[in-house]
């Protein structure tokens, strides 16, 4: 069975995790505007989920997305009450800073575990629930919001970087295993996006943007995600510079590590 050429939201039933805020809510809005039939939202932030759900008009699930049973129950309920899911957007995520910016191993192991659970295991739990259904129908799209930190690294947050690299690993594995089954997979990898995740004064927090190439609005990232999926792309990089950095990294890893050390000195 050929891989679908791309994802068209029109008349689709979608689930967006982390949909109460930030990039997830922007994705849900963009999917609705592009003609999606139903967009269900999942988020552990029940307070923000209620108004977001009212605005988007679909089912809401106040769950921890890394809870395998809760993720499976959500997928089953959407399929029973609404219909076959066309898109699962695994978008919820968390960050944890290094305890000592000069030491990548300084954050407590529990911070590494928390990031791994939400930023990677939740994607696997979602895929366990939804991909067999996609496979039965020979159709479906899995969008993983990861980060440029999964391709390059996030200065000041080893727990985040490690978990996002793991998420890239899973998305790649998923993409090539389901490629011949009519199922699409995309990995959305922005640098900085203006959401709660980067704080109230992101320009200050990010030291004048020295370690990022501009802060994008969540709406721009959502638009890039829809465009990338429409084109059937695996890797979606809303910041143009990311692919260039990947090329430099692959061409000379030692030079890249040296460049990151220099950038770390500038930023911190
Ligand atoms: N903001 C950025 O600069 C940036 C850059 C690259 C990638 N990302 C990624 O984009 C995604 C969305 O983040 P955002 O920037 O919109 O941040 P955000 O904090 O605005 O949104 C994240 C959402 O995920 C939810 N969430 C977190 N853990 C959860 C859990 N266990 N179960 C259910 N919901 C949970 C939060 O409640 C929140 O609504 C994340 O995966 C993040 O890592 C963000």
From TrEMBL:
SMART domains: PKS_KR
Superkingdom per UniProt: Bacteria
Keywords tagged on the record: Oxidoreductase
Residue ranges constituting the Ketoreductase domain according to the UniProt record: 12-201
Transmembrane segments: none
CDD domains noted in UniProt: SDR_c
SUPFAM superfamilies with a match to the protein in the record: NAD(P)-binding Rossmann-fold domains
One of the record's GO molecular function terms: oxidoreductase activity
Annotated family: Belongs to the short-chain dehydrogenases/reductases (SDR) family.
Protein name: Oxidoreductase, short chain dehydrogenase/reductase family
Source organism per UniProt: Pacificimonas flava
């Amino acid at each position: 069975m050929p891989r679908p050429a791309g994802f068209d939201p029109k008349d689709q039933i979608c689930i967006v995790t982390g949909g109460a805020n930030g990039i997830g809510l922007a994705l849900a809005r963009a999917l609705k505007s592009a003609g999606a039939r139903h967009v269900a939202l999942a988020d552990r932030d029940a307070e923000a989920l209620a108004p977001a759900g009212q605005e988007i008009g679909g089912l809401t699930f106040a769950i921890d997305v890394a809870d395998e049973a809760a993720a499976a129950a959500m997928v089953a309920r959407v399929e029973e009450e609404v219909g076959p899911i066309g898109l699962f957007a695994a978008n919820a995520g968390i960050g944890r800073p290094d305890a000592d910016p000069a030491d990548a191993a300084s954050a407590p192991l529990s911070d590494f575990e928390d990031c791994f659970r939400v930023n990677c295991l939740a994607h696997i739990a979602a895929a366990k629930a939804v991909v067999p259904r996609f496979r039965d129908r020979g159709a479906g799209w899995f969008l993983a919001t990861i980060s440029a930190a999964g391709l390059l690294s996030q200065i000041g947050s080893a727990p985040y970087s490690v978990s996002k690299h793991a998420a890239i690993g899973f998305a790649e594995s998923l993409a090539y295993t389901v490629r011949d089954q009519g199922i699409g997979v995309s990995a959305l990898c922005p640098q900085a996006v203006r959401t709660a995740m980067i704080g109230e004064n992101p320009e200050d927090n990010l030291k004048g943007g020295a370690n990022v190439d501009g802060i994008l609005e969540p709406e721009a990232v959502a638009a890039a995600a829809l465009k990338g999926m429409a084109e059937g792309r695996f890797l979606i990089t809303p910041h143009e510079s990311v692919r260039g950095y990947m090329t430099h990294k692959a061409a000379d890893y030692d030079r890249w590590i040296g460049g990151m050390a220099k950038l770390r000195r500038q930023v911190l």
